[in-house]
Automatic annotation (TrEMBL):
One of its GO terms (molecular function) is proton-transporting ATPase activity, rotational mechanism. Keywords: Ion transport, Transport. Belongs to the V-ATPase E subunit family. This is V-type proton ATPase subunit E. Pfam families: vATP-synt_E. The keyword Kinase does not apply. Gene3D superfamilies: 6.10.250.1620, ATP synthase, E subunit, C-terminal. One of its GO terms (cellular component) is proton-transporting two-sector ATPase complex, catalytic domain.
Length: 227
């Protein structure tokens, strides 16, 4: 009996040990599982937080980039509008000059127009400096110019000491749509000079345009070179 009791006691202790060890192992497993769960949860939250931050950072960059693009478009359009307005102002200014030139050739201003024609013909002759020169004018200016020819030739001779023969072309005329003036050329047509009022206006516009812009709109801050 004593041997059996001793066996049962040892068996009971062994069962208790196994149960206790099982409980401890189970607790360790629970702790490890809980720790692993929290690690996974923390990793998931960190990953999710990073993804959210990345999303909003990209969204902010995209938004800022769009703002830069929009501002650039606004500035470009504003610059174009300013340039267009300036061109309009300058065009209106020269249109007014063109209108005054047109009025100059009207019949009521014939005395002033005669003086202009005289100077244009003389200027052309002094530039060409040839003994024989042909001139063309508008058909409606022929009568005026014929009366000026002797006066121009005499004045030319007085200034240069050179005798010149000026021939008025009766077969070819300047366009009536133009604002008058004169075209001069040698008989061989090797030298030709356009001294019409329209051409003069274009030349003057090209020469004085920078000064006109400066007078109307001030210095251009982007201009690096000056004549």
């Amino acid at each position: 009996m004593a041997g059996r009791d001793d066996y049962e006691l040892r068996l009971q202790k062994m069962v208790q040990y196994i149960e206790q060890d099982g409980h401890e192992k189970a607790e360790e497993i629970d702790v490890m599982a809980e720790e692993e769960f929290f690690k996974e949860k923390l990793s998931y939250e960190e990953t999710r937080t990073e993804a959210v931050k990345k999303y909003y950072n990209n969204l902010e960059k995209k938004y800022q980039h769009q703002i830069v693009l929009d501002m650039s478009k606004i500035k470009t359009q504003a610059h174009r509008d300013i340039l267009a307005t300036r061109h309009t102002v300058i065009d209106e200014l020269f249109d007014a000059v063109q209108s005054r030139i047109t009025n100059l050739t009207l019949e009521e201003n014939v005395c002033l127009y005669k003086k202009v024609l005289f100077k244009l013909i003389l200027q052309g002759l002094l530039k060409i400096m040839e003994p024989d020169v042909v001139i063309e004018v508008r058909k409606k200016d022929v009568t005026i110019v014929k009366k000026l020819l002797k006066q121009v030739q005499d004045y030319f001779h007085e200034k240069t000491g050179m005798t010149i023969n000026v021939l008025l072309n009766d077969n070819s005329f300047l366009s009536e749509k133009g604002n008058g003036g004169v075209i001069l050329y040698t008989k061989s047509k090797s030298i030709r000079l356009d001294n019409t009022l329209d051409t003069k206006l274009i030349l003057v516009r090209n020469v004085i345009l920078p000064n006109v812009r400066k007078a109307l709109f001030g210095e251009n801050p982007n201009r690096r070179h000056f004549d």
